[in-house]
Amino acid sequence: MSEVTNPIQACNDIFFKPNGVFKAVNEHNNWSWVPFLIVIVLSVLPGYLFINFVDFSWYQNMLIDTQYGDLSPSQQEQMRAGMQHSAIQMFMLIGGILGPIVVNAVVALYLHLMTKSDEQNLNGFTDWYGFTWWASMPAVINALLAIALIALSENHQVLPTIISPLSVAYWADVQMSSEWFGFAQSLRLESLWTIYLIAVGIAQWTSFSTKKATIIACAPFAVIWAIWLVVNLI
User: Fold this and answer.
1) Is the pLDDT of residue 70 over 90?
2) pTM (2 decimals)?
């Protein structure tokens, strides 16, 4: 296992040599500010570029048709009036910042509680919160692909799934009007990569076996997807 000596190296090695990164991060928890800033910036940027690239009138009409198609024409017009470019831009900005912060806090609390039974584990909630930003780094790959797709697109009438090019919704071309859209949007390749990184990190930070670490890493994602699947089927 090669030694990781700085957070910039760690941001690169997390994709190829995660064991060494988690070992180093366990000794240098102040490094986690670097992936935090990277993930937050790249969580916001694709949405910002999308809303400034898309044919906004077309996007407005698509949202009205797919989400409020059962409303009366006057009610639809009221919804359209409320969907101003600046408002949606601000929503994407706030969501891109607060979304990862809140989700990672929940994941950190879960990991903290699930690893408390390991007497050798001295890491608290804040340590696990820093840990989650390293495990979130696969989102960077998704963001870079999204930015590239938006930059190369010549058609301004593009679906918002372009922001999540590693999702099933994007590859299967699931329409926003489909009841399966949200579920398909949540099934992402980077989520599986994140699960893998969480499992590797737990095994590195605790005395748990690889099997137990993998179960802990998979459990919350599996439960959420299973409940979502059942709800859609019902």
Assistant:
1) no
2) 0.91
